[in-house]
Design a protein that fits this description.
Its main location: cytoplasm. By secondary structure, the chain is mainly alpha-helical. It is built from 14 helices and ten strands. The strands form four sheets. It has a three-stranded antiparallel beta sheet. Strands 7-9-8 form a three-stranded mixed beta sheet, with helices on one face. A two-stranded antiparallel sheet has the order 1-2.
């Protein structure tokens, strides 16, 4: 940042910045004209800023993976929604999809049951794309336009969805911990959404506004947790104007856990999560007792037995494809609690349609976990040296 010496007010300015827009018109056709208008406005009025526009479906391309060449998918072998438990076992298999990226994107969200899960995945995909673009362009900072009103809504909704462990990072003013080479900043965190609206009006920039749109736009309050929380906070703010500021003061006091393992991140949302959260979730989750036949089938599946009646050969006949030889992966081991709950609303098609960056994270972390389990008996810990 720099300060203009000739100005009376010593306002800090950003010497260089890029603007990244993610076009969601494949999912929301009504936003197609908004994306075109935004590109024209930047070209005519803000040409000093470099402008990038990516379509949301481009997340299925290899350029949004760490290796730039990853081309595998997660094949569900536990039934998705049809599975009565929260278990989600998958295998990393070679992708042979002949669908376009737009068709893959539509298939992904069409096969997700609840709106809350759709909105969370949409946000996670956009955040992953922003992080990838920032790294590619060498940007050390990502500026988010979250207002104080939005911060208050996010804090309540994220806590309700089970993101309390990482909520301090999700709503912090400057998040330097989630990514080693990036800082997520929210410079508008002290401004109410109403104040921003007044500023846009008096500064005559309303003509450049692009209204956001998602799965719960113009829908009833109970459509999703985020929509319900927004309606709740805004309605209280009308009668008690200090509601948002009170919540935001609480937000400012939040700090990440001292023993948070920042190297252990969720494969979908990329945020840190607690170890062994799956076991804790099973203890607090009430499920129906399975029938004897279903229990026997699950035990057989857990033992790794395939369909022996398959003429192509299963595990017992020693045949099968190369995909059958891939290790089974418990996907929940690599997800935070909130994403585990959302995964309950995914069916087999939606799991297989997850973006490559998710499959890459799951496969890489699973491989590292297997390697660690194989060599853990040979590792020397600090306690052993002291003894």
């Amino acid at each position: 940042m720099r300060v203009v010496p000739s100005e009376k007010k010593k306002v800090q300015l950003i010497p260089e910045a890029i603007v990244c827009h993610i076009d969601e018109s494949t999912l929301f056709e009504s936003t197609a004209k908004s994306s075109e208008k935004l590109a024209q406005d930047f070209k005519q009025h803000y040409s000093e800023f470099e402008y990038f526009s990516y379509r949301l479906e481009e997340v299925f391309g290899p350029e949004f993976t760490k290796s730039d060449t990853f081309d595998k998918i997660l094949k569900s072998i536990s039934g998705g929604i049809e599975n009565g438990e929260y278990e989600h076992y998958v295998k990393c298999v070679q992708s042979n999809a002949n669908k376009s990226q737009a068709e893959q994107l539509k298939q992904l969200f069409t096969n997700i049951k609840k709106t809350t899960a759709k909105e969370d995945l949409l946000w996670n995909i956009k955040m992953e794309m922003l992080v990838t673009v920032a790294r590619r362009e060498g940007c050390p900072y990502i500026f988010m336009a979250d207002s104080a009103t939005r911060q208050a809504i996010k804090m309540i909704s994220m806590t309700s969805k089970g993101r309390g462990y990482s909520v301090a990072l999700d709503v912090s003013v400057d998040n330097t911990q989630s990514f080693k080479d990036l800082c997520i900043m929210r410079p508008m965190k002290d401004m109410l959404s109403k104040e921003i609206g007044f500023y846009n009006h008096f500064a005559n920039v309303t003509q450049f506004e692009t209204l956001p749109y998602n799965f719960s736009t113009m829908m009833p309050g109970k459509t999703s947790i985020d929509r319900l929380t927004e309606e709740f906070i805004v309605s209280i703010e009308r009668e008690f104007p200090s509601t948002v500021s009170t919540i935001c003061r609480t937000v400012m006091k939040l700090t990440p856990s001292a023993n948070m393992d920042l190297a252990k991140t969720c494969a979908i949302c990329l945020m840190p999560f607690e170890a062994d959260i799956g076991a804790w979730r099973q203890h607090i989750t009430v499920t129906d007792a399975p029938d004897a036949d279903e229990s026997e089938i699950k035990q057989q599946s857990a033992a790794g037995c395939g369909d022996c009646s398959n003429p192509d050969g299963g595990c017992c006949s020693g045949g099968g494809s190369s995909a059958d030889k891939e290790p089974r992966i418990d996907m929940n081991k690599f997800l935070c609690y909130s994403c585990q709950v959302n995964l309950k609303d995914y069916n087999e098609e939606s799991v297989a349609s997850l973006p490559p960056y998710v499959a890459e994270n799951v496969c890489d972390q699973s491989r590292d976990s297997r390697l660690l389990s194989q060599i853990k008996d040979f590792l020397i810990e600090d306690s052993d040296e002291e003894a």
